[in-house]
Design goal:
mainly beta; 2% helix; eleven-stranded parallel beta sheet; single chain; elongated
Length: 482
């Protein structure tokens, strides 16, 4: 489907009309007709970021200035490619390819707005599209170049995917415009190196199975579809990935999920006994505007994974569930977020319906954190909301050999808790992107323990696929010091 991105094209046109009303309208008494008269431009090359074929770009603009002491009559302002061009220009409120006899007063300027919508091609790799705006003045021609990189893609718009679907690494990214749905008993398999660009409010719904087969060299990447640099790390640009009630056997390896509202949401326990609904290995969830990993009576095993820079919680586990986190790093440094909540939230509270009437049930929670770093700028980065049952304890948590930012919540002595400023000595947690590798003086080095959890494979390497030199006392967090 040829669906257009929203843009500010006509808004900028209106601003141009307001700012420049009168430019080129009042006829002066005389013109500068000298061949030496010239125009100046704020740029002579308008460079667009990479744009998907059939999709409108953002609007770029530049100014044309008359530095001469008299008005000039620009005999023609013309898009060289004419009506066949993939570019569009708007001059002084008029969308046109040819604007003859434009009068520009002495010392005055005009805005010219430009967009591009590349056409489909057979190319798998990005290709260049270009055109030129010609300015003919007193017999000579000046030029401003329009240049964009175009990228073909596979477009998915509000589609139920077939059984079974493969996203192959054929050189073309996937663009998810709205909703993609994987039915029960069906599988979506994603090859290493595939990038899925997600439009505003897009969501991937999994009622069947998702297998994401990234590698260190070629991760699978879910990201926003705005390619301009200003949007690269902007949170909340699409919804995220949601695993529904019937979903089973989901695995994500070396997969990056970025800039969503909720990065990954896991709804309900696995319908297969003693098997997690979702297994995360060496994954990154980043820049979620709300929650990185949200679970509602879910079941998740996560190893060697990194969740950071969420607007609220990095991990939110509500209504119980079964969770194992081994050698993971969770960090939030969000000074710009007022009244931020802790990084980790665990509860087994009663479910409430729309009338705020609690059902007479408790969702048992069992959660373990081994060799993890739970850090941030709050005094307490772990929040536990416990509801006790008259028939026994249904809130079972184990924290072993972690580095934790905590004050009110008490953890055993096998954890390093609430240490001095600068802990746990990341290489550069404030970088863009941050670097969560360990400095040589990090207390995380050799601070962990060997982990044996039923159903969880022993961990002997890290997110970089580097084998730990200390099997019995591994480093804490998702990266081994090396």
């Amino acid at each position: 489907m040829n669906k257009r991105l929203p843009n500010l094209y006509w808004f900028f046109t209106l601003i141009g009309l307001i700012l420049l009303s009168g430019s080129g309208c009042k006829k002066p008494d005389s013109f500068d007709t000298s061949p030496s008269a010239y125009l100046t431009f704020s740029t002579t090359v308008v460079q667009f970021d990479t744009v998907f074929t059939t999709v409108n770009s953002s609007t770029h603009n530049f100014t044309v200035h008359n530095p001469n002491k008299q008005a000039v009559n620009i005999s023609d302002i013309r898009l060289q490619g004419g009506s066949n061009s993939v570019f569009r220009i708007n001059i002084n409120g008029s969308a046109t390819t040819d604007f003859p006899n434009f009068v520009l007063a002495a010392g005055d300027s005009i805005f010219i707005f430009a967009e591009v919508t590349p056409k489909l091609s057979a190319a798998n790799t990005p290709f260049v599209v270009s055109d030129t705006i010609l300015f003919v003045l007193n017999g000579h021609t000046q030029k401003v170049a329009l240049v964009a990189f175009a990228q073909n893609a596979h477009f998915i718009d509000n589609r139920i995917l077939g059984c079974d679907t493969f996203f192959h690494n054929d050189g073309k990214p996937i663009v998810l415009y709205d909703t993609a749905y994987v039915r029960p008993n069906c599988t979506l398999t994603i090859d290493a190196g595939v990038t899925i660009y997600c439009h505003r409010n897009a969501v991937l719904l999994i009622d069947g199975t998702l297998i994401s087969n990234g590698t260190k060299a070629q991760p699978v990447t879910f990201r926003q579809d705005r390619l301009e640099q200003a949007y690269e790390n902007q949170p909340g640009q699409w919804y995220g990935i949601r695993f529904l009630d019937s979903s089973v056997n989901n695995t994500m390896t070396h997969t990056i999920v970025g800039e969503g509202t909720v990065g990954i949401e896991v709804d309900s326990l696995s319908i297969i006994p003693n098997q997690p609904k979702l297994t995360l290995s060496k994954c990154i969830i980043k820049n979620s505007s709300s929650i990185g990993l949200a679970c509602f009576s879910g079941s998740v095993n996560a190893t060697n994974s990194l969740i950071y820079a969420s607007g609220m919680y990095n991990v939110y586990c509500e209504l119980g569930g079964v969770y194992n986190f081994v050698n993971c790093t969770f960090d939030i440094i969000n000074d710009f977020v007022a009244n931020r909540v802790p990084s980790i939230h665990l509860d087994n509270l009663l479910y409430k319906n729309v009338d705020s009437i609690a059902f007479p049930m408790i969702s048992a929670l069992k959660a373990s954190f081994y060799n993890c770093i739970i850090w941030g700028d709050l005094a307490d980065e772990v929040e536990l909301q416990i509801h006790r049952s008259t028939t026994g304890n249904v809130f079972d948590t184990l924290f072993s050999h972690n580095i934790i930012k905590a004050n009110k919540v008490k953890f055993g002595s096998v954890n390093q808790v609430n240490q001095s400023q600068g802990y746990p000595n990341f290489v550069n947690e404030a970088g863009i992107p941050p670097d969560y590798h360990l400095e040589s003086n990090s207390p995380a080095i050799k601070g962990g323990t060997m982990v044996i959890i039923p159903g969880v494979l022993p961990i002997n390497d890290d997110m970089d696929d580097v084998t730990s030199p200390n099997i019995n006392t591994p480093d804490i967090g998702c990266y081994t010091y090396h």
